[in-house]
Specification:
Distance between the termini: 42 Å
Largest sheet: 5 strands, parallel
CATH superfamily: Metal-dependent hydrolases
Bound molecules: zinc ion
Helix content: 40-55%
CATH topology: TIM Barrel
Number of helices: 12
Order of helices and strands: HEHEHEHEEEEEEHEHEHEHHEHHH
Shape: globular
CATH architecture: Alpha-Beta Barrel
Number of strands: 13
Structural class: alpha/beta
Radius of gyration: 21 Å
Strand content: 5-15%
Number of domains: 1
CATH class: Alpha Beta
Oligomer: single chain
Length: 329
């Protein structure tokens, strides 16, 4: 009897401890897509990377194409190797609709040559902008673009990425271009099934709705989601922007208590290979202001998932899809 009581008390204590303590994912974290532009210095980005507990950041460069590899090398040195290179697809005006498509395409090829000549062991290409709402912001003046996977410049860009054994990262905005979302979804299913040996990663959750995500999972094996720009900070920030000055369609995976919404949590646990963690810092304030906070939101969110799911989304999936050959701990 005494033994039983002790066992019962131990059981109770163990369970109380588990429900009270907030579980934080403490394993390896890979940011699978972030960007460095002209508004921030190499030293500043390096400092932020060094101050945060993100093990590895896949970086692509914005701004002047001449400096891309040089800047990357400088950041790599200053972070002691905590970054890997993604060749940018947008430096030569790729997402500017008035820019000649062939010139934009040769710009990507040139950046690839630059990476090879600089002996950079790149792990892939940065996001290909398929759709992007107009911006009227002090940091980005932009007229917007609404293409699809059959558009000439998109097909050409994807062909360049296909030449390497790397994932194809696509930026589509299913909310901001709601009227085209069915078409884009069908095209994603088509391209995924036509190329079963490739992985397609949709940036910023593609601004997708739950039922559309389920549609993708049901109809493809190799179209996955990158979690960038779906955290509570981003959602708060976006509300202020709902004046037609930038994208308004970002989705948030989090509830008001800043935990993962149950429906998304379930979807992640049921499809642990279909999500890849990324922060996607773009502007200087992303790096300098809320980076730590957003990493914390995600460590908490990952902590609420099944252990195996958390480890895959945080590290394992990026490790496999980008062939990073690191140890996920
Ligand atoms: Zn993007």
């Amino acid at each position: 009897m005494k033994k039983l009581v002790i066992f019962f008390l131990a059981f109770l204590f163990f369970n109380l401890k588990n429900t009270n303590a907030e579980t934080i994912y403490n394993g390896t974290l890979i940011d699978a897509h972030s960007q460095v532009g002209i508004l921030i210095k190499d030293e500043e980005v390096s400092k932020e990377i060094n101050d945060n507990d993100v093990y590895l950041t896949l970086l692509s460069m914005r701004g002047k194409h001449e400096n891309a590899t040089k800047r990357y090398k400088s950041i790599k040195k200053q972070t002691q190797g905590k970054v890997r290179y993604l060749i940018s697809t947008k430096l030569k005006g790729f997402a500017r609709k008035k820019r000649d498509a062939n010139k934009a395409i040769s710009g990507i090829k040139e950046l690839k040559r630059q990476a090879i000549n600089s002996k950079i062991n790149y792990v892939g290409f940065g996001e290909i902008i398929v759709q992007h709402a107009p911006h009227d912001h002090e940091k980005l003046k932009y007229e917007g673009i609404n293409l699809n996977l059959k558009s000439y410049r998109i097909k050409k860009a994807i062909d360049i990425v296909f030449e390497d054994d790397v994932p194809i990262i696509l930026h589509v905005e299913l909310n901001d271009y709601e009227e085209d979302s069915k078409k884009i979804l069908d095209q994603l299913v088509e391209i995924g099934n036509e190329h079963p040996d490739k992985n397609f990663l949709l940036m910023h959750m593609a601004q997708i709705e739950l039922k559309e995500a389920k549609f993708i999972f049901k109809n493809t094996k190799n179209v996955h989601f990158i979690t960038s720009h779906s955290d509570p900070y981003r959602a708060k920030n976006e509300k202020r922007k709902r004046l037609g000055k930038a994208q308004t369609g970002w989705i948030t995976l989090f509830n008001k208590k800043e935990n993962l919404k149950k429906k998304w949590k379930n979807l992640m646990n049921e499809n642990p290979h279909r999500f890849v963690f990324a922060i996607d810092n773009v502007f200087d304030h992303h790096w300098k202001k809320n980076y730590k906070e957003r990493v914390y939101f995600w460590r908490k969110a990952l902590g609420s998932l099944n252990k195996k799911t958390a480890s895959l989304i945080a590290c394992g999936n990026a490790n496999t899809y980008f062939k990073l050959e690191i140890q996920c701990k």
